[in-house]
Specification:
five-stranded mixed beta sheet; 45% helix; alpha/beta; Nucleotidyltransferase, domain 5; 2 domains; 330 residues
Length: 330
């Protein structure tokens, strides 16, 4: 069987990334140009600044990817790009560049759902992993429980009704004086604290949906009323309660579907505390638990190239009329 080389482009938020992947699982290169130092001074991502930086970076990042993989454009079989969800201006840069490459090279174009990419990151880290399984997608913009039936068929079991868990982490971090991005800072500080502050645990009857606005507001109010609170204890308490909510619904989903394979995906899956909690769950319930390498948790193009490969071999390609869809659903 002929090898299929996919070039992936990711520009949904504040990383300009281009990767080249063979057969969906072997990464030949994965170049990531992060804008975190630029946006840190603003306490979060500024969409217009992100878009401008994508425009400036994408050609040079693509050139670097080809050099690292020791390839030419002609060696690429399929051009893949994130077309949603994300910041519309940022998405348009990657989509437009991918469409131009597809047209100029006369190669198939595959639009990839950014969330599908996060899920596919696990196929790169775990070569043996195959559907079906349940995936907990936890990132700055999403919190979803998804039944992965096969490589291209997904069923949402539960999702957040308000804030995504990563958004809650960032807002809590900002209030207590930690730098952007907040998730890693909370994870680090919480290791020196105790989860001794009671915070609300939100759940819904007969639903696997999540809600993090209540706990986020509770932390903000607690910090306002107790400005001298031990920040490490507050971080530990917030992190534990938020993870309790994730674990409760995930356990229920695994039991309902009688599935013994759990996959974590998205930027928040890089949290050492969350990884340890779900590793312990796997040990207790005899469930196989998978999560991506740390470099593949945050936004990157290797995961887009992987997801694009599975779309392509299953006949899912895109027309050159492909457009950015900032609110694209799973």
């Amino acid at each position: 069987m002929k090898n299929i080389i996919t070039l992936g482009i990711e520009s949904s938020c504040d990383e300009t990334s281009v990767a080249i992947v063979k057969n969906g699982r072997e990464v030949l290169c994965n170049v990531i140009n992060s804008q975190i130092p630029i946006h840190k001074q603003f306490g979060g991502v500024v969409p217009e600044i992100a878009s401008r930086n994508h425009i400036e970076a994408i050609s040079s990042v693509t050139k670097e990817a080809l050099e690292q993989a020791n390839m030419k454009f002609e060696d690429i079989d399929v051009v893949c790009c994130t077309y949603g969800p994300g910041l519309v201006g940022a998405l348009l840069v990657g989509v437009s560049y991918a469409k131009a490459l597809s047209f100029a090279l006369n190669k198939p174009l595959v639009g990839v759902n950014h969330i599908h990419g996060h899920i596919a990151a696990n196929y790169i880290t775990h070569k043996e992993l195959e559907p079906p399984f349940i995936c907990l997608v936890i990132s700055g913009g999403h919190t979803h429980l998804v039944h992965i039936k096969n490589y291209t068929e997904f069923e949402i079991l539960g999702k957040t009704r308000d804030d995504a868990i990563g958004e809650a982490f960032d807002k809590v971090a900002r209030v207590i004086g930690l730098e952007y991005p907040g998730g890693p800072k909370i994870d680090k500080l919480a290791k020196t604290g105790e989860p001794n502050i009671e915070l609300p645990h939100t759940s819904f009857d007969d639903s696997l949906d999540f809600s993090f606005s209540g706990i986020k507001t509770a932390v903000l109010n607690y910090h306002h009323k107790n400005p001298n609170v031990n920040k490490a204890d507050l971080c530990a308490s917030f992190q534990k309660t938020a993870t309790d909510m994730l674990e409760k619904n995930t356990k229920e989903a695994l039991e309902r579907l009688k599935v013994n394979k759990l996959v974590l995906a998205g930027g928040v899956s890089a949290s050492s505390y969350i990884r340890n909690r779900f590793f312990e769950l796997g040990q207790t319930k005899k469930i196989e638990v998978y999560y991506p390498d740390l470099i593949l948790c945050t936004d990157n193009a290797a995961m887009i190239a992987s997801a694009g490969y599975y779309n392509f071999i299953n006949g899912k390609t895109s027309e050159l009329s492909l457009n950015a869809q900032p609110n694209l659903k799973i």
